[in-house]
Each structure stands twice: as structure tokens, then as C-alpha cells.
Amino acid sequence: MSNEIILEAKKIGKYFYEPEKFRVLDDISFEVKRGEFVSLVGKSGCGKSTLLYVLSTMDTDYEGDLRIHNQSVTGMKQNQLAGIRNEKIGFVFQFHYLLPEFSCLKNVMIPALKLGNFSKEEIEHRALERLKMLGLADQALKPASKLSGGQQQRVAIARALINDPLIIMGDEPTGNLDSKNTDIVFDIFKQLSHEMHQTIIAVTHDNDFAKRSDRIIEMQDGKIVSGH
Amino acid sequence: MPKKINHNISSDISMTYTFSKMKLTVVAALGVTIGIAIYIFLNSMMAGFARMSDTLIFRNIAHIRVYKDDDISRPLIASENSNKKVNALVNPKIVPESQTIVNPTLLMDLLRKEKDVTMVTSQVATGIFYHKGESQIAGNTIGVNIEEADKMFDIQTTMVAGKMLDLKSTPNGILLGVGVADKLSVKVGDNISISSPKNVTKVMKVVGLFRTANSQIDKVKSFMNISAAQQILLQNPSYVTDLDVNIVDYKNAVNYSARFSALTGYKAEAWQTANETFVAASKMRSIILTSISFTVLIVAGFGIYNILSMTISQKMNDIAILKAMGFKGNDVTRIFVQQALMIGAIGVTVGLLLALLMVNILSHTYVGGDIGYFPIQFEPFVFFQGAMVGLIVTFFAGLIPARKAANVDPVSILRK
Ligand SMILES: Nc1ncnc2c1ncn2[C@@H]1O[C@H](COP(=O)(O)OP(=O)(O)OP(=O)(O)O)[C@@H](O)[C@H]1O
Ligand SMILES: [Mg+2]
Question: Which among A96, A97, A111 is the nearest to B326, CB-wise?
């Protein structure tokens, strides 16, 4: 872990208005360093996913300031944010994973094809490497819709890694996995953060997973109660 | 920073969407196919029909006719020029003057030198009576140089009996409309007598019969040599009543008539002015067919719009994921617009072939009369226009739902 701050949230606040106005995120402030592996925990409904969407730059309807890689992203245009997501952020969703009409391999390749830093052959090679890492080499050419939930989640993880993003965000990235595969994913995250200096922010309900990460941020009713 | 490679991933995704839901693609493309085919078919029909009816009308008249208009007598006191208003009772009358065009050869030379003029001929037109035995018919005859007149009016194609060129070698020959011949019960080789407004009676030999598209005309009209027409009117060989002028583009005749009037000092009347009802009818026909063909295309466009809107609402998840991975709004728009254009291109291609088939079938359909087969043919411009309009309609039918897709908020989808 270096001392370089890669993500900084300053007094992030957010309201929902349906069914009635309530403050779902309440003055959230914290910093994450480069190469840090952070777990975000808290009771169901405390606002973890909501916070992660704000951090991922997809949700722009919030108060406060968000800085990623020494750059304030608050108030940026949608197209700029899309560019930042493509290049710097890998995201594993809580419920939604893959494009069903494409093969697993293609799903993993899409963000890299979009970014265009490598030739198609290199991208394919890199995608296969990551699928192999997650134990899915034999599923590469299957259509994504033909995979089990756990397999799909692992493909989504492989996809989040394809562009070597600065930050990997996961909303319960191991929620559908058995303990063996959870361990595999955990080891990958550990390795990426400690050897490749990529930052991991993972929401989890798995206490064991959280305890073994570098740092636990605990939320309660839209506030951070420990770990900032 | 390494140079970025454009992998065209949007187009890749668009292809996958188009070909993984083959059924939807085919249904949408079929809509375009039918729309395009009908559009092209109707427009080809219209073009063929217009060409045919124009051809038929120019068998009777030239693009521009130069003649001496009847003068109306003017009041003897020109009230508009004097300061004192004088009210004179006048009784306007046609001035009884000869219908002649003075010095026709000079005028013809002048007209021939004009830009865009392709042909100039002179004729002597007059009303006459045809007699045979007891029967007598009022009609009109045109004294012509038959070879020139044929070039202008395509008389040869209307001939049904006798030889048109025999007129040249027979000074008292006459070509009769079939209606006239029927009423007089004469055939080629028979003699008839005619009388002119100058009360000159002359025996003529029928050398040929013609049938135009208009049976009313066939019941009154005949052609004779210009010298014979001058004789029965008791005129000298320089007497001419009309100059007929053809120009390069007959649709522009109106633009030339004023100039030719000024040039010759006689009235130059464009064919459109002389046939206002015909022109209005053509206009109406083209408005009707154009609106039908456009309606069909719009319906096809709605088909694409519906199917694309449906595809997009099924793909909300994909769109949210793509946006989360860094696809911009324009990338999403491109995916679906390209899908629409691919469907459009497939539909248009098949539609062009179908239209070709329909045109081909109709062109072999016999409708009779002196028209024969339905006057329709492959019109490259109409096909080109159909393809373009088809692609433009599909473009917009795709763009509208695609723009909506581009504005989807990924968070609202992913949170569910
Ligand atoms: N679109 C929305 N409109 C109104 N309220 C919402 C909306 N989305 C979430 N909420 C509410 O905001 C709160 C936080 O939701 P969030 O999804 O962030 O919880 P979470 O911590 O991720 O829970 P879980 O662990 O179950 O995923 C919840 O009380 C939820 O009901
Ligand atoms: Mg959640």
C-alpha cells in the first residue's frame, strides 16, 4: 500500500424522495489509498450500494465532493465520467452481470475493446488469462446466458479486471459464490491490491471476507460508524 | 499515453443484436421491403403513365404554338391617355383580319436560332367540311409538310391504313382520322370532297387513315399537304396560320412562351396553357400517388420504430451495464441507429428486387388501345430515390428510440 490517495469522499450526502424524503447518505467522508483492499459492511438497507453507485461516478445526484485519482469528478459531464469509468474503474454489480447474447469471452473483452489500448488479439489473450484465473477457461466460448449465477458473477469479475483499473468496486462480488470460489476471488483481490497496487472497495456481508481485508468501513443508517 | 485503437465495438454489438433476434429483424425488414416496393412501384407507374400521356398529347400539339391571336377592337377614344375622362360606349368585336403569320420563313429562322429549340414547323390549320355522297361532316384539317409534321407529332405510329408518305407524292391526298372515315364510310384509295370556309370545294384522295388516343379528334381531324390547304383558302404559298415549336424540355414550355411572343410579335402559347385541364389532372394524379406512397413508407417507418422501441426496452439491462463500463450516450445511440440502418438496408435491398419484379410483371400486362402494354419501365432515378427515402425513414425511426436509450440512467436500472 502506498500513501497516494486514490479516492476521496468529502461530506457526501444524498436524499431519496420516494416514498418520502430521507437522507440515505449522511456526510460520508473517507479516503482510500492506492493498493488498499477495503471492505464496506453494514446492515441491509444502510446505504452501501447507494454509496458505491456514487463512488463509481454513475450516480451524480449527490452533495459534497468526490475525488478520484486527484481529480474532482463532482460536476463533470456524463461523457467525461464515462471515459473515467472505462479507464479507471472496474465494477461488479450486485444483481446484474453480463450481456446475455455474447459469449463469456466477448463480455470480458468489451470494456477493453471500448478503451482500445490493445489490439484485438492481445485483448482476447488478456481476457482468456483472466477467465483462467477465475477458473472459467472452459466456459469462455459459451453464451453468457447459459452460465450459472456464480459462474456469471466470476465472469463479471474477470470483466472488471480487464482494463487493469485503478479501482475495482464490487457490490457483494462473492455473494453468489461457494466458499472455494470466494477464496479464489479473495486471493485474486489480495494479489491485485498488494502486487499490482490496484485499489479494491468491496461491499460484503461475509464477515470472514471482511476481516481478512486490509480495512473495514462500517456503515449504519447512511453514516460511517467505523473505519474512516 | 499509447495510441487508442478503434475496435468499433458499438457496431459489433449492434450486429449481434440484429442477428441474434433474427425473427424481429425479419419482421421489421419485411415492413421496409413492402413499403419500399410499393413506393417504387407507384412512383414508376406514375412516371411511366405521365410519360405516356405526355407522348400522346404531343401527337396533337407542339410544345409551343405561335399563331395570330384574334384582336378585339379598341374604343376609338383612348380614355387612359387623356386627362379628361371620356366615357365612350363601345361594342368590342373581333377585328375581321386574316389569320396569317406574315413572313413565316424569317420567323422560323429566328426561332430555330433560339437556344433549346429543337424543331420548328409551319402549318395551315382551318375548319372544313368533308362530303361523301349525302353525308357531310364538319371538321378541321391541317396543311403540313408531312415529313416535318411526322417528326414533331409522330404521325407514323398512329397510322392504321395506307401509307403516310404517299401524301407527299399525291398533291390532293388526305390522311383521315378513322372516325371521319367511318362516318363517311370511305377507305384508302377512295375520293372525297371537301369545302373550305372560302367556299372552295376540292376532291381529295384518301391515302391513309390514322387513329390517335383521342377518338373525338379522330372524328374531325385530317392532314393534307400545306399547298392544298393554301389553295382551298385561296392563299398564296407563303400563307401560314401556325408555327409549331418544340424545345428540349417540354416541362419548361411556359418559360419560353413569353420570350417567343416578344421575338415574333405573335402569340406564343405553351402547351400547358392550352391544356390546363390535362395539366391539372396530371397534377392531381401525382399528388394522390405521392401521398399514398409516402403513407406506405411512413407506416413501414412506424414498424421499425415499434420494433426498435421494443428491442430497446428489452435491452435496458444491457444498456445500463454498457454505460457503467464507460459507454457514452452517443455510443449507445450508435448501437441502435446502426441496428435500424441494417434492418433498413436489408429491407431496402429486398424491396428494390421486389419492386423490379412488380414493374416487370406490370410491363408485360396488356391494357389495349394504342397504348398496348402498361407503360411502365425500370426508372433508375425512382429506384435510387426509393432506396434513399427508405434509408432516411429507417434512420429517423431508429434515431428516436435510440436517443431515449442513450439517456437511460444506469443507476435506476442497476438498483432494481
Ligand atoms: N430508488 C430508491 N428510491 C427510494 N429509496 C431507495 C431507492 N433505492 C434504495 N432506497 C432505499 O435506500 C436505502 C439504502 O439502500 P441500499 O440499496 O443502498 O442498501 P444496501 O446497504 O445496499 O442494502 P443491501 O445490503 O440489502 O444491498 C434503503 O432503505 C432503500 O430502501
Ligand atoms: Mg446493496
Answer: A111
